[in-house]
Description:
Blueprint: E1 2-4, E2 34-38, E3 44-47, H1 53-60, E4 67-69, H2 75-78, H3 85-91, E5 94-99, H4 100-109, H5 111-114, E6 129-134, E7 140-142, E8 145-153, E9 158-164, E10 167-170, H6 178-183, E11 189-193, H7 206-216, E12 220-224, H8 232-238, E13 243-245
Parallel strand pairs: 3-4, 4-5, 5-6, 10-11, 11-12, 12-13
Antiparallel strand pairs: 1-2, 2-3, 7-8, 8-9, 9-10
Amino acid sequence: MILGSGTSFGVPVIGCRCRVCTSPDPRDRRTRTGAVLEDAGGARILIDTPPELRLQLLAARVRDVDAVLYTHEHADHLHGVDDLRAVTGRRGSLTVYGPAATIAELTTRFRYIFDDTVVPPEGTSKPVLRAEPLEPGREVTVAGVRVLPLACDHGGTPVFGYRLGPVAYLTDVKWVPPEVLQHLRGVEALVLNALFERPHPTHLSIPEALAVAAAVGARRTYLTHLTHSYSHVELAARLPAGVEPAYDGLEIPF
């Protein structure tokens, strides 16, 4: 399920009165980018912890997650991490995974979570998390699900995409290396970021994302990390067959 489909600003953008920010279509309300995958056995893997994580999980009626995969360390993908207190308060510890640089930044930026010497005052709590770095191209099993981390470029910042069986999730990528395209062959559903019509230094443009989608050849491709430059209806009308905009709450069967 797509929990959030918007850029780092979110949609509506603060102070903006454009036609998309004031749209009555709920698909045009885009919180910061995140997703949750549930496999046939019921395991739930969260991808990123956006600032609206609490609201996203409540809206999606997700009561528990079994692990977290981080794509990279930018604030719009990381700063909802404290909302995991509600999860670990019921189940105990939770393991979070991601690129080594992201794990290092996570444990530094949120030292109070990962430093065992920081003990919350009696009557309070903190998330109980274990952090594990992943190696690109090396498949691991997370909560019983086979996960393949895929190293991409975010305009000079390393970022991981993930293949989880028949599904692949790539956000905040500017360039998808040829070896990653090979790893994506055969996926049924691809979630891919697409920003503007024009080129952007750190994200795929819509034309660039469509070129990646064509190279991968997934049965369905969903564009995420969307701006307020276009409404859901407008973007959907101009995309080729097999490609559609993602929206908050979208369930993708596989």
